Amino acid sequence: FAIFSLVYVTSVLGNIMIIVTISSDSHLNSPMYFLLSNLSFIDICQSNFATPKMLVDFFVEHKTISFEGCMAQIFFLHSFVGSEMMLLVAMAYDRFIAICKPLHYSTIMNRRLCIIFVFISWSVGILHSVSHLAFTVDLPFCGPNEVDSFFCDLPLVIELACMDTYEMEIMTLTNSGLISLGCFLALIISYTIILITVHHRSSSRSSKALSTLTAHVTVVILFFGPCIYFYICPFSRLSVDKFLSVFYTVCTPLLNPIIYSLRNEDVKSAMRKLRNRHVNSWKN
């Protein structure tokens, strides 16, 4: 309880700090940081869909959840994960334009396009989630009702249905696999082109771009690693599955503030200015 409470609070406060820092510093008024603040918002949402109940359940002997609550967890999980995948693709496109076409960056990556990217990411996430629930909510659940996880995971819930769920399992794998594989391939292609472009340059600007790029790639690897495993083996029952579920749900939202704060000098500088501003106001 103590460990997960610390991770949860740190994750939520860290992402709130990123949003506040970006919104309060005019030097961070760029498309990359606009998308980053939206990524932090999604991570805050992802931190709250299941973790608070998990923390409360540490003190409850019989851990229960209503059918409506279970469906809500499935909806929110797939909405947030789908939205974050699309937003990571948008951030990769932003870095692609900034590094490969720097002279056209301000023209292409305007505020209108960034808002469109955010709207599309949420729309895809919600549609992805609704497409799952449309087939799940009407399944006949009449037998065992125990989900062997700390939240309602779609494959585990489908297996509780009193019918042959093979077709549902294939549909789930296809639906989730297409969006995750599509986003992952788009990210791999984008970052490969960017790395090749940076490799052919030797300047301080390229060094800064590489540092920013490293942070993005790190988040992508840690985010898509467990995700790809779940969609390759969605109905396996190994002991590592629970560990990855906890990591993906509880720890992944913490990656954003840690990686982008520690590796990004602009964000660290803005945080120091924000801290000094509040310290001086308190002294006065």
TrEMBL record:
PROSITE patterns reported for this sequence: G_PROTEIN_RECEP_F1_1, G_PROTEIN_RECEP_F1_2
Keywords annotated in UniProt: Cell membrane, Disulfide bond, G-protein coupled receptor, Membrane, Receptor, Transducer, Transmembrane, Transmembrane helix
CDD domains in alphabetical order: 7tmA_OR4-like
UniProt GO molecular function: G protein-coupled receptor activity; olfactory receptor activity
Domain G-protein coupled receptors family 1 profile: residue ranges: 14-260
A Pfam short name: 7tm_4
SUPFAM superfamilies: Family A G protein-coupled receptor-like (SSF81321)
Entry's localization field: Cell membrane
Its membrane topology: Multi-pass membrane protein
Spans traversing the lipid bilayer: 6-24, 71-93, 113-135, 178-198, 210-232, 244-262
Family to which this protein belongs: Belongs to the G-protein coupled receptor 1 family.
Database matches in PANTHER family: OLFACTORY RECEPTOR
Name of the protein in question: G-protein coupled receptors family 1 profile domain-containing protein
Species of the source: Ursus americanus (American black bear)
